[in-house]
């Protein structure tokens, strides 16, 4: 009560890396005790060895993810701070104010990066809240080089064991469709049906040599990508979309 517990990563050298993606599984509860739903779980990022911090994610004080249970969290470093040789990640759970019960856990932290020869992917558009009270988010990992053929699409903050389709086009948009927003315009290509895991994360590894006939990707192309997914029993339509991510591809 009245204190803060902080978990720090080692200082990490990310010099020269692009599209650095941090993914972790987290568990947080603050909804019990004398003063429930009054605290937050903060994930911070520093690029000067911890001298200064920027907030990367806030969980709580209310919502589905502040009542226990494992959820996927994550962010793209480049979207928050320029990668340097003095990067550090901070997880901070506090129990401030009146006495309450706060519990937090972190597991399965992974850090990956994209090919430095391409510009970093950028998220755009918005993901509407789903049945978890959160918005589905697009991330990517691997190499943006077509010749490497090692590129994976990732969507987090989804309902567990639900089905979805990664879709992409060369034009952006933002129009209300179903219970969310379609972030693509023009001709849209779709990839095979995929299922989220029990943590609400969905992945699909692209094979650049075997893409839909309407959606080839070549060096120098830029594609805008998002996920359509089912969210049965929620909203008026029972399906939703993540936000979009813009990805430049290289040789």
Task: Give a structural overview.
It is a single chain. With 251 residues, this protein is mainly beta. Helix content is 0%, strand content 50%. The chain is globular and about 60 Å long.
What layout of secondary structure does this protein have?
Elements: E1 3-8, E2 18-32, E3 41-46, E4 54-59, E5 67-76, E6 88-95, E7 101-114, E8 122-124, E9 137-142, E10 151-156, E11 163-169, E12 171-177, E13 180-185, E14 189-190, E15 194-195, E16 202-206, E17 222-230, E18 239-241, E19 244-248
Antiparallel strand pairs: 1-6, 2-5, 2-7, 3-4, 3-6, 8-19, 9-10, 10-16, 11-14, 11-15, 11-17, 12-13, 17-18, 17-19
The overall pLDDT average reads 92
Helix content: under 10%
Tell me the strand percentage band. over 45%
User: Mind summarizing the main beta sheet?
Assistant: 7 strands, antiparallel
Order of helices and strands: EEEEEEEEEEEEEEEEEEE
Helix/strand-derived category reads mainly beta
Low-confidence regions: none
Quick one: overall form? globular
Short précis:
The protein is mostly beta strands and 251 residues long.
Summary keywords:
single chain, 251 residues, mainly beta, seven-stranded antiparallel beta sheet, four-stranded antiparallel beta sheet
């Amino acid at each position: 009560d009245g204190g803060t517990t902080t978990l720090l990563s080692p200082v990490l050298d990310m010099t020269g890396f692009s599209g650095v993606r941090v993914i972790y599984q987290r568990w947080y509860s603050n909804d019990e005790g004398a003063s429930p739903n009054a605290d937050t779980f903060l994930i911070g990022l520093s690029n000067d060895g911890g001298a200064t911090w920027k907030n990367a994610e806030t969980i709580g004080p209310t919502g589905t993810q502040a009542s226990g249970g494992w959820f996927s969290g994550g962010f793209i470093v480049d979207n928050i701070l320029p990668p340097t040789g003095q990067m550090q990640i901070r997880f901070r759970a506090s129990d401030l104010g009146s006495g309450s019960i706060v519990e937090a856990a972190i597991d399965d932290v992974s850090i990956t990066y994209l090919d430095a020869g391409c510009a970093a992917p950028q998220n755009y558009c918005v993901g509407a809240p789903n049945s978890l009270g959160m918005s589905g988010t697009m991330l990517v990992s691997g190499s943006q080089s077509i010749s490497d053929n090692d590129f994976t699409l990732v969507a987090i903050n989804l309902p567990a064991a639900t089905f979805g389709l990664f879709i992409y086009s060369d034009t952006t948009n933002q129009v209300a469709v179903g219970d969310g927003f379609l972030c693509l315009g023009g001709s849209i290509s779709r990839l095979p049906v995929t299922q989220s895991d029990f943590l609400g994360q969905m992945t699909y590894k692209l094979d650049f040599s075997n893409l839909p006939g309407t959606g080839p990707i070549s060096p120098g192309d830029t594609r805008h990508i998002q996920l359509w997914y089912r969210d049965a029993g929620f909203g008026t339509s029972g399906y939703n979309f993540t936000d979009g991510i813009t990805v430049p591809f290289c040789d």
